[in-house]
Design goal:
Strand order of the largest sheet: 5-4-3-6-7-1-2-8
CATH class of the largest domain: Alpha Beta
Order of helices and strands: EEHEEEHEEEHHH
Structural class: alpha+beta
Shape: globular
CATH superfamily of the largest domain: MM3350-like
Largest sheet: 8 strands, mixed
Radius of gyration: 18 Å
Number of strands: 8
Number of helices: 5
Number of domains: 2
Distance between the termini: 28 Å
Strand content: 25-35%
Helix content: 25-40%
Length: about 190
């Protein structure tokens, strides 16, 4: 008989981001790491255009690729539930997204809570900072991007403004929008 779900409250922090980019979420303990990946893409604002992996106590979890040299060293995230790795993770593990831009996220388990029947999981409780745009060049590229956007005389200002859709505020975070995206993801 399967063990009933508990809820993990996780704090997700994008390492090295200035201003700080973080999210606090509640997820069911019986989701797979593949499902957690989809949730993280949603709450952070990423577009799932790149490879990713979880790193937990020296073990990598992701989608093994047949053509990758080290794919045998990677465990299949679709076959591992979050609750299976939480104890081994000592309350903290890493989500690595986009091996080119190298976005590292620290996931900290802040608590284990009982399932509330009236709550639809996953749910975002809070956060700060806008997610950097895809393909901006990692933390160094993001810093250059923000510098160019903040200086109308910067030689790349107009190109990057256009590339980013006409505006970008690194401080903006909308809890309502994130939870709407989570509900849409859950309903699809």
């Amino acid at each position: 008989m399967p063990k009933p779900s508990e809820i993990y409250q996780l704090k997700v922090t994008l390492r090295g981001s200035q201003p700080n980019v973080w999210r606090r979420i509640k997820v069911k303990s019986d989701i797979t790491l593949a499902q957690l990946h989809s949730i993280l893409q949603c709450v952070m604002g990423w577009e799932d255009k790149h490879l990713h992996q979880f790193m937990i106590q020296g073990q990598r979890y992701g989608l093994p690729q047949k053509d990758q040299l080290h794919s045998r060293e990677m465990k299949d995230e679709r076959k591992v539930e979050l609750r299976e790795i939480v104890a081994a993770a000592n309350g903290q593990f890493v989500y690595h997204y986009d091996f080119g831009d190298d976005w590292h996220h620290t996931l900290e388990v802040e608590g284990t809570l009982p399932l509330e029947k009236s709550v639809r999981y996953p749910v975002c409780l809070g956060g700060a900072g806008a997610c950097p745009p895809e393909d901006v060049g990692g933390i160094p590229g993001y810093e250059n991007f923000l510098e160019a956007l903040g200086d109308p005389k910067h030689p790349e200002h107009s190109d990057l403004l256009e590339w980013s859709g006409g505006s970008f505020d690194p401080e903006v975070f909308s809890l309502n929008q994130v939870n709407q995206r989570l509900r849409a993801m859950h309903n699809s």
